[in-house]
Design brief:
The chain has 418 residues and is α/β, with parallel strands linked by helices. It contains 16 helices and 12 strands. α3 packs parallel to α11. The protein is globular, with a radius of gyration of 22 Å. Bound molecules: pyridoxal-5'-phosphate. Pyridoxal-5'-phosphate binds next to α4 and α5.
Length: 418
Amino acid sequence: MKTETKCVQAGYDPKNGESRVPPIYQSTTFKYDTTEKVGDLFDLKSAGHFYARLSNPTAEIVEKKIAALEGGVGAMLTASGQSAVMIALLNICQAGDSIICGNDIYGGTYNLLSVTLKRLGITTVFVDPAEDFSKYIKDNTRAVLFESLTNPMARVLDIERAAGIAHSHGLPLIIDNTFPTPALLRPFEFGADIVVHSTSKYMDGHAVTLGGAIVDGGKFDWRNGKFPCMTTPDPSYHGLVYCDAFGEAAYITKARVQLMRDMGPSPQAMAAFLLNIGLDTLALRMERHSANALLAAQFLQNDDKVAMVNYPGLLNSPDHELAKKYLPKGQSGVVTFVMKGGKDSAVRFMDALSMIKIVVHVADARSCVLHPASATHRQLTDEQLKAAGINGGLIRLSVGIEHIDDIIADLEHALKCV
Ligand SMILES: *Cc1c(COP(=O)(O)O)cnc(C)c1O
């Protein structure tokens, strides 16, 4: 099936007389005939839903759809994008380990790594994804984490190159693919090993449900000596060894049966149901978001009050060549630009918009704006802001699926008010 078809058809194939739309299993628990059957589930000898912290049939349908869209061997939904990133890392990292991460990563991920994981004894080296980061890889490095298209600067990652460096050191490349979504880019095709998502963004697409997903590409060699957590017995399952028991799905199975079991940021059935409705139209929406964003970026670029526009679809973008390779179907809907007058002009422009609203969100059907330096990236020091490329005059515009004429009319009016 093609991506457009998977968006509506993958994950659920109703039997005779069953509901055409995936049902909402609003139940924390599931019934079994004998204690032995329940025991087998707890020992992972048989598969089945037994408690909604670990799995739920509605979530499972959506997990299958997302795994199919990304081309992975399995997926797990989480309660938020943050919990997806957290579990993706904790699944293979422990105290004493280190992570390589992009220095222009989403602010929430930056905080998770630089503060919270650090307190747990997991350190992070933040690097420029475009440089040769092999010099920062040490014996205790366990993962490389980058965004395929960064939030908010929309830099395009050279995934093949990053995967090459990571693999030459026996490390998995974890890609946060939130901004392109698999409708525009499938990182496994370029060598990524694990994909994470904040489904709160384009996948849900309507700003109604928080969620996250982890997808396992199934190809990474966890037996290379660096990942005893995958190759030695887990005492919490009577000595089960994930790589032996689950083969190519070892990583995603461990994420669920060990970390989701123990930490519990599980998705609600209703959230999975709503996410699934969003996914039905994902491919269509990403086409429109991309087309509108390119036109909006071109419009902004021609205004004298705008100092600079970042959008990888623009011919003069430093990432245009990478965009041609990795995002040929469209470069998603996020455009960032810098007002010549700095923070004051940015604020005046934003306050003068009418249809386009100021919200702490990005990547949904309705056009919206945010001032990163005073919101998502507020916790960063001036030095960290500089490293992440965030300037006081910077505005993040999330271009929606409205008619482009209405979007441009609102931008034009607000620019006149600056
Ligand atoms: C929003 C976002 C996250 C965090 O996801 P939540 O669903 O808000 O927890 C992680 N990565 C990226 C790229 C994001 O845009």
